[in-house]
Amino acid sequence: MAGERPRFLEVRRLLRRRIETGEYQPGAPIPSINDLAAEQRINRLTVMKAIDPLIEEGLLRSVAGRGIFVVGEKVARELETLDGFTRTMTERNAEPSLKVLAKAVRAAGPKYSAIFDIGEDEDLCFIRRLCLSGGTPFSLEEILFPADLLPGLDRVDLSVFSLYELYSFYGVKLARAWQTLGLARSNAKDARALDVPEGTALLLFECSSYDEENRLVEFTRTLTRGDRASFVAHFQR
After folding, report:
1. pTM confidence score
2. Contacts of the segment 103-111: beta carbons below 8 A, 24+ positions apart
């Protein structure tokens, strides 16, 4: 055992260096315990002894059944009203969950090039996800943001980290948002996802979020079941 100590310390330094240099990116998993053990030609226990302090530091996050993920440097949320679904539901003592239905990179095209003020051929990340409260469909979100905002998104598990966490890892500070509310009828695809009859009236939210330099960094379109949600607006003279 005396000769083992330098090895787990060496592996710990190696993992820390790979995180600091960006080889292991924020939000993405590191190799499995078995893979690291095979790479370094050591046993699993030695790898775990190297990793456990990094988890305690908050540099890594272990998620049962999914793996161990890199946690980036978090920054303070400067606009507390920009709450994501998970945080909003948790604060209301509801049990939130998210199901990613699609995650892809696409060209902006005419519509979104105008919204983001970018070229039609520039890449946007597109995420379509179902938000559930207590296991029941609550809302359907379509989220778009510039692909260069979050490098390596294809390796990120969006059920482990929220988009707000990922933004903070890469130093993106949301400063303000503009949201509109309307009504829409569910088409067949959206109705199946939300478990409502086709043609059901839904609340339609469109939200544009901007950073401190007034750059549009995210456009979100959300369809919300009216029977599952109520919203309050506060006015003051």
Report:
1. 0.70
2. 103/127, 103/128, 103/153, 103/154, 103/158, 105/147, 105/153
